[in-house]
Automatic annotation (TrEMBL):
Gene: HNMT
Gene3D superfamilies: Vaccinia Virus protein VP39 (3.40.50.150)
Keyword Nucleus found: no
UniProt-recorded name of the protein: Histamine N-methyltransferase
Source organism (scientific name): Nothobranchius furzeri (Turquoise killifish)
GO MF annotation, one: N-methyltransferase activity
SUPFAM superfamilies: S-adenosyl-L-methionine-dependent methyltransferases
Binding-site list for substrate: 28, 283
Self-association and partners: Monomer.
Length: 294
């Protein structure tokens, strides 16, 4: 049966509103920052192979907050090197926000930014068309593989761009998160596969295993307070529900059966824990680190 539900991706204003609220209610960015400060330095230590210049590609960089955090760790590890940073991001609003952030940080003058207002697949097409031979030392794809047609092919392409000792980092929700549970039961009703896919690091691991690609793997514990979702008519609860389901106006457009089923599962111990009077959704993330192909 075709899904009559509209993807949240079609309404960028509402996506950004629900995303901002999600960031306030969750530890998503904090757990990434912890990873960047505690684990990433060791991963970045081996890249570059003594070069004085490093090429970085951010795929789906958004407003750049997490990118700049990583670039700062890279600079701490390799203080003498200059950096060429290719930013790939289709949203002009997000690219603008990223540029503003950069303009406020003159200390980033060791980085040359190249702004690519396009999707990952457009970037891939351009790269192939121009027969680019440039290689990358560090590529990251954070919470973006949901939005490509073929996550496996996208990983293979970007992995092929890695230079000797280069690293590709992927962050997605973990299979053992509330999203993993929600999608096992409701992917057919919720996922508009034309636009976004219910893919977890579990799926990516199985893909890499099947290709014989080795990787390092980390789990980032993360949570999200979804208590407001259970107050009928609560504006913020509805925004959070839209983010969780990626359905525009989920509360108003989903069938009563689907809505009841999703709400029941969201508060079930397989998705959420209880802390005092709060419902705390498991937003655990997975990180995969991949080397240049052999
Ligand atoms: C668009 C699509 C996706 C966006 C976006 C805009 C997005 C964040 C901000 N703006 Cl058009 N995606 C995003 C970011 C973080 C995150 C997830 C998606 O944790 C996770 N999804 C699946 C687990 C949320 C349903």
């Amino acid at each position: 049966m075709a899904s009559p539900l509209m993807s949240l991706v079609h309404d960028d204003d509402r996506y950004q509103k629900s995303f901002q609220l999600f960031l306030e209610r969750s530890s998503e960015h904090q757990c990434m920052k912890d990873f960047i400060h505690n684990k990433l330095p060791h991963i970045l230590a081996s890249i570059g192979d003594g070069k004085s210049h490093l090429n970085v590609i951010g795929v789906g960089s958004g407003a750049g907050e997490i990118d700049l955090e990583m670039l700062s760790e890279l600079h701490k590890r390799h203080p003498e090197v200059t950096v060429d940073n290719e930013v790939v991001e289709p949203s002009s609003q997000q690219l603008h926000n990223y540029k503003v952030l950069v303009s406020q940080k003159p200390e980033l003058n060791y980085i040359k930014f190249t702004w690519n207002k396009m999707t990952a697949s457009e970037f891939e097409e351009n790269w192939k068309q121009k027969k680019m031979t440039k290689k990358a030392d560090f590529i990251h794809m954070i919470q973006m593989l949901y939005y490509v047609k073929d996550p496996g092919a996208t990983i293979s392409f970007f992995q092929s761009l890695l230079d000797k000792n280069g690293k590709l980092i992927i962050i997605l929700v973990s299979e053992k998160s509330g999203f993993g549970t929600l999608w096992r039961k409701y992917r057919n009703q919720l996922c508009n596969t034309e636009i976004s896919q219910c893919v977890t690091t579990g799926d990516i691991k199985r893909f890499l295993d099947s290709k014989g690609v080795s990787y390092q793997s980390f789990v980032l514990p993360s949570h999200m307070d979804i208590t407001e979702c259970f107050t009928e008519g609560d504006e913020k609860g509805e925004l959070l529900l839209d983010f969780l389901t990626e359905v525009l106006d989920f509360s108003k457009t989903a069938s009563p059966e689907l809505k009841a089923g999703v709400l029941e599962l969201l508060r079930h111990p397989d998705c959420s824990s209880r802390s005092e009077d709060r419902v705390v959704f498991n937003n655990n993330l997975g990180v995969l680190v991949i080397d240049k192909p052999i």
